[in-house]
Structure formats: structure tokens, C-alpha cells
Amino acid sequence: MEQEQFKQEVLPLRNQLFLYAQRLLDNVEDAEDVVQEVFLKLWYMRSDLIHYNSIPALSMQITKHLCFNRLKVQKRRQEDLETVVLTSGGLNPAAELEQKDSVEKVMLIIDRLPSLQQTILRMKHVDGFEIEEIAGLIGSSVGAVRTNLSRARKKVKDEFFKMQV
Asked: Taking the domain 88-165, which CATH number applies?
């Protein structure tokens, strides 16, 4: 599929996809992000789109899956915050609040990382994958995964310390 055909067939779906994502996520910014991700995925698979019976149906399916993934991440993040608060049992209330605030700041910083760095960081530190496994799953070299992981950690650390000042 050429660029012009993509513009004619896929871009007009934007409003429909946005409304669907907004209903699922109940957040305008997240819905907009999901629609952008859908377009990106469709663009990368544009040469294979001729094999699908309905591009609008495929687009809706991708939108649904991306929204559900986003909701899972939000739920997991909330559970992580609750776990931090529960496991800090011996801390005084002020220290607990400070710890919870720090975790929220780190999560916000991670959300602003490039998509690949977010994925690698979460796979390594949340899901517990080894670097070789991550490389295999994302189709990258071990060196590239190490580099992206290092850059992500450095960015999180630097941004966190900037927030502390």
C-alpha cells in the first residue's frame, strides 16, 4: 500500500478510533496516544494490509488491544504503589508518603521515556526477563538492549534527581 492509498483508507478512521479508545480508557490524552500507536502499527504493516478483509475492523481490533494493554499497565502500577505502601510497614506516615511520592515520580518519568526504552525497562525490572530473553522477544541484539536499558536507567535517575532539587 502506497502513502496516498494509506492516507485515503486509514486516516479517515481517526475519529472513530479516537472515540472508541476514549470510551475504553476514559482519558483524552491516552486515547490520542493509542490512536497514534494504531496508525504507526498500520503504517509499518502497510504492505500486508491487502491481505485483510477489512482495514477498519483490523484498526478497531488493534485499538482495543492497545487500550486493554494500557489499562493493565495502569492497574499494575496502582498495585505496585499499594505494595510499596504496604511493605513500608515500619515507616512513619510522613516517610510512607514520601516513599509513595517517589515511586509515583519514577513511574511518571518512565511513562515519558521512548516506547522501546519503556518496554525494555519494564521487561527487565517488572517482568524479570534476562537481557538475552528481551533481545529475542523484541527482535534486537543483546548490545542494543543493554544500551537502551542503560540509557533508560540513566534518564530515570537524572530526571528523578532534577525533581528532587
From this structure: 1.10.10.10
Whole-prediction pTM: 0.51
The CATH architecture that domain 1-76 belongs to is Orthogonal Bundle (1.10)
Interatomic CA distance for residues 96 and 86, integer angstroms:
9
- Please give the Cα distance from 67 to 73 (Å, whole number): 10
Annotated domain spans of the chain: 1-76, 88-165
Helices (H) and strands (E) in the chain, counts: 8, 0
pLDDT digits (tens, 9 = 90+) for 66-78: 999 888 877 777 7
CA-closest candidate to residue 6, choices 32, 35, 40: 40
